[in-house]
Design brief:
The chain is of the alpha+beta class. It has one domain (3-226). The chain is built from eight helices and nine strands. It has a six-stranded antiparallel sheet with strand order 2-3-8-6-5-9. It has a three-stranded mixed sheet with strand order 1-4-7. Helix 3 (123-131) runs antiparallel to helix 4. The radius of gyration is 18 Å and the shape is globular.
């Protein structure tokens, strides 16, 4: 890697950190993960398997607003993991409905399941979420499939879990889902400058493990686009 690339990537990382801190400060409130650890927030799965996007209810029992950020991962071992699809602030002593994407295509969502805020999605997942419109069914579905591609290294089984439920709930076909997954795979590898072999090894959606991969993707983008 030459000096110009190192400098450029360093500036991008610094800018991203500064913007993240700025955005967090502008939203105000206590971080979701901390608020839940302090017993101030309850998170519950609302929607059934196959829904895109999913929604969860977040109940703020505290006296301070709680900040919810795109990319926050929500865990449940018996239901499924989700990743938050929007930024918002939950006022004190109130409930909010929050849009999320499924992070585990092999696992089905269970309405009523309790979720735990844990870690943040990596750079590529955040980019996919930011580029999507979770209120638009087509955009949300496209983003969902891309996230599954990253989670499964490009090898999503359409006959299990949320993938299967998506076909059933949308009254679509497995053939169509397979076609759409192929397109999502191609979009992901092109967008982030990944080979299929590299994609197979990138199944962790969370940071900090995904930070290096995100930087590598940015470097590849600049190399391919700007020739540096």
């Amino acid at each position: 890697m030459n000096f110009r690339v190192i400098l450029l990537v360093s500036l991008i990382v610094i800018f991203a950190v500064v913007m993240g801190v700025t955005n967090f400060a502008s939203l105000g409130g206590v971080d979701l993960e901390k608020a839940q650890a302090d017993g101030k927030v309850e998170i519950k799965q609302d929607t059934a398997a196959g829904t895109v996007p999913h929604t969860v209810t977040m109940k703020n029992n505290g006296t301070t607003p709680v900040t919810v950020r795109k990319g926050q991962i929500l865990n449940n071992p018996s239901s499924q993991d989700l990743v938050v699809a929007e930024d918002l602030t939950i006022p004190a002593a109130s409930n909010s409905t929050v849009k999320t994407y499924c992070a585990e295509p092999d696992q089905k969502a269970t309405p009523g399941a309790k979720l735990t805020a844990n870690q943040t999605a990596n750079t590529m997942v955040l980019t996919i979420i930011t580029d999507s419109n979770p209120s638009d069914p087509s955009s949300a579905r496209s983003a969902q499939l891309k996230i599954w591609i990253l989670k499964k290294g490009g090898e999503v089984d359409p006959y299990t879990g949320e993938a299967q439920a998506m076909v059933q709930s949308s009254k679509s076909t497995y053939y169509q889902l397979k076609q759409d997954l192929t397109a999502a795979n191609n979009n992901v590898t092109t967008q982030f400058g990944l080979s299929n072999e590299t994609l197979k090894n990138m199944t962790n959606l969370s940071s900090p493990e995904g930070i290096t991969s995100g930087i590598d993707a940015l470097r590849n983008w600049f190399k391919n686009t700007l020739g540096i």
